[in-house]
Amino acid sequence: MSGDDRCSGMSEDDGGSSSSYLTNRNGAGDSCSTFPDLVLENVLENVLCFLTSRRDRNAASLVCKSWYRAEALTRSEVFIGNCYAVSPRRVTHRFRGVSSVVIKGKPRFADFSLLPPDWGAHFTPWVTTMAESYRALEKLYLKRMCITDDDLTMLAFSFPCFKELVLVCCEGFGTSGLAVVARECRQLRVLDLIESEVSDDEVDWVSFFPENETCLESLIFDCVDFRINFEALVQLVARSPSLKKLRLNQYVSLGQLHNLMIRAPQLTHLGTGSFRLLENVAHSVQEPNYVSAFAACKSLVCLSGFRDIFAEYLPAIYPVCANLTSLNFSYANINAEQLKSVICHCPKLQIFWVLDSICDEGLQAVAATCKDLRELRVFPINAREDIEGPVSEVGLQAISDGCRKLQSILYFCQRMTNAAVIAMSKNCPDLVVFRLCIMGRHQPDHITGEAMDEGFGAIVKNCKKLTRLAVSGLLTDQAFSYIGQYGKLVRTLSVAFAGDSDLGLKYVLEGCPRLQKLEIRDSPFGDSALPSGLHHYFNMRFLWMSSCRVTRRGCQEIAQQLPRLVVEVFNWNEQEGRDMGDYIDTLYMYRSLEGPRADAPKFVHIL
Amino acid sequence: MDSFVGHENDLNLKATELRLGLPGTDESEKEMMCSFKNNKRASPESVEDSESVAGSDDKHGNRETPAAKTQVIGWPPVRSYRKNCLQPKKAEAETGIYVKVSMDGAPYLRKIDLKVYNCYPELLKALENMFKITIGEYSEREGYQGSEYAPTYEDKDGDWMLVGDVPWDMFMSSCKRLRIMKGSEARGLGCA
């Protein structure tokens, strides 16, 4: 939609008779006397309703004040990439008719214990403000936020139309909060708990769902680390005819899974729980027919779980393999043979998560069958550095040869070669996400002994759609030079134990115009590199640097030059005397409209 | 490598030194830089608080055990939830209960680890797959019906028992070897 012709036709003159209409529609706080052509604005709003992408909407809102207002009125989905970049009040003041909110809190390195607890990302101020302004809220997606049971309670009581709650990598709440949501949100369709920490307050939250038919479409609780009331779950599933997605936790046995599956053959996404039998199951009772339970689920396209898998039962899933597009074996300790017996039946697979226990041989089998593969994640069964790994460049090469449509890869290994990475860069031109984790720090190409510069260089050069990159292994500044030179679309870059000097960071900050998230740990980048990003920091979501060579002084200078940037600095050991020339442990800086946050804990210094 | 202890005093100097050489030529410096960070970071309170696992050896190893490569916080970058789910398995696998399994008519014996199985159905399923047979259904009164095979075991007293009669835990602690009987001998066991 081109805004140019409209803009020229608009004027800031207001039609006096129309001001009362505007007051009614826009409510208090808007000054009617500055409103331009009303009819045009009305039309604009009706057209803007069709704009769904937030980037398009952001662009539209910049055209002129009139467009800004119209866009603000019609935006129904709000995305907050950093909960500290903007205050809840500012959001609710600008966007009035919001039904869906996404909020992300802590930076990603918090997942690896690099962020001290109590750092922040509290949901409370958000729910409190939204409770007043967004009575029609339907959907909430939170990632890496701290949520309390009180927050959940407020949520449950404040939003009568609430339909979807998705909590990813969140913590701070427990079964009591969940129970209130289950009981009060009568229109709840989606309750997804993904990789979140849920505490066991010994409240039987599953029993709190309404007693008559529910609207539940998705119930995901595979991260819940304790037993739930299985009987209540069976009854819940039985009275939820719209249920399509069900992901059970590891306390659900195979027998119990069968019990659920026969009541929900309409499922499209199934997390299978432990996938083995409970201990001491009396086997005088005939074993259920697992195969026919799976065969009955004709719409199943996504399988996960297998938390404690007894591989002898794998053949039970054969009936659904032909239609599977997503398979998550990343908690299943299976070997190459066991994997092969399954994967040969899965030609339509697009998403595959697995443990490296399948070895290079298993990956070769994947490459042979899964020609449509888009996303692959290979996790380490043994996340240590100093061992022989089961997967290597052989597996990566095989995948690149067989899965030409690959778009996203996360690959943990102990050793790698440039040749294999270069091969992938050429075989898989559609790559958007390339994350290679060579677990041994500073590991070179294990055949040539060279740094991994050329491999990653080839990735940024040949994969023209690349937006996310994670590097590892022995890397010199040359690698970063390549990234700066070719990585023009890169938005997210993760660096660990890499580079030689400040130049490395300079290359990236100067060369990557789309860079939004830069997270660096244990790399020798120092103060002199920081100014290279001054022109760009305000376009970024954040910069994270931990255990690098930046000093307080260096960070101070940046903070002074860019007052709208929040520069957080923290050290792990507060007791030791620190002066301006000492290296800081962690630098986390981000743009914000609000200035330094009021809820920063003592160990965080905002410069 | 306990070199990092000795170098503690030099640490600042080395760490701030500008180098033009290729990486990898001075391996000890890289180790030092990492262990420098380790020493700073290994403040027990802050480390332990942020871990949700008790007793995970790979994160706290940096102080007590100077291994060949000291483990570093948050590396490899695998979420602790995932690490916790997979680690317990490894510990269990170290002490297995291995018993020999023979089958009438089979040329050689096999060996299995009883600890791998949670219950009888799993054990039987494994035996079925291993020997490519069907064992049939167990009932307390009739024994194994529906096939010509019956799984038996020799217990601590040297007696041959039918698999499935006693609780699983008792079976695990008393089973010395397994034998899959075939044919008329097997059927004879079922008669009360």
Features:
heterodimer; A: 607 residues; alpha/beta; 21-stranded mixed β-sheet; two-stranded parallel sheet; 31% helix; disordered N terminus; B: 192 residues; alpha+beta; 5-stranded mixed β-sheet; two-stranded antiparallel ribbon; 9 helices; 41% helix; 16% strand
Computed Rg of chain B: 28 Å
Rg result of chain A: 26 Å
Number of strands of chain B: 7
Count all strands of chain A and give the number: 23
Instruction: Provide the succession of SSEs of chain B.
Output: HHHHHHEEHEEEEHEH
Q: Which stretches of chain A are poorly predicted, pLDDT < 50 over at least 5 residues?
A: 1-34
The share of residues in helices of chain A is: 25-40%
Strand order of the largest sheet of chain B: 2-1-7-5-6
Q: Main interface pair? A: A-B, 61 and 60 residues
Helix/strand class of chain B: alpha+beta
Which of globular, elongated, flat, extended, rod-shaped describes the shape of chain A?
globular
**Beta-strand proportion of chain A:** 15-25%
Helix content of chain B: 40-55%
Describe this structure as you would to a colleague.
The complex is a heterodimer of chains A (607) and B (192). With 607 residues, chain A is α/β, with parallel strands linked by helices. In chain A, strand 1 (77-80), helix 6 (88-94) and strand 2 (100-104) form a beta-alpha-beta unit. The longest helix of chain A is centred in the N-terminal third of the chain and has 11 residues, at 38-48. The model of chain A is unreliable at 1-34 (pLDDT under 50). Chain B has 192 residues and is an alpha+beta fold. In chain B, the strands form two sheets. Chain B has a five-stranded mixed beta sheet. The chains are: A alpha/beta (607), B alpha+beta (192). Chains A and B meet through loops of A and helix 3, helix 4, helix 6, helix 7 and strand 3 of B. Chain A: This is Transport inhibitor response 1-like protein. Chain A: It is found in: Nucleus. Chain A: Keywords: Auxin signaling pathway, Nucleus, Ubl conjugation pathway. Chain A: One of its GO terms (cellular component) is nucleus.
